[in-house]
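Quick start: read one record
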Amino acid sequence: MYAKEASNAAKALGIAVHVLNASTEHNLDEAFVSLKELSASGLAVPAEPFFDSQRDRIVALAARQAVPVIYGLREYAVAGGLMSYGASLPDSYRRIAMYVGRILRGEKPSALPVMQATKFDLVLNMKTAKALGLTFPITLLGRADEVIE
């Protein structure tokens, strides 16, 4: 799903996109090595269970390869990643709790509407940006929900 959406967006912007798949630690290592071969100027890592289980490894590989990465979860930026933009997990958990309460009060799960995330967090890591020789535009800093010094 992410790959198709990224490809469509890239095509509309006239940007080349390469999809790198990884489902093992070895695949992760290979994917980061291939970034140099592709002369990639950045990487987007979606919020996926396998990637999240490898969060520290991915952040370390990105630092070693000196590649700017945007992640789908705040926790990556907290762990040293450059930046993240994605659904707020605490907000999502609150919504889940509301659904649990409704179900416990007798509502049928099949009668509940499908809810999508409505709160998204932009987190910027200044220390990582500096290490990569990057600066965030002031407009982006102003829109950030959290700036990690």
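The chain has a mean pLDDT of 92.
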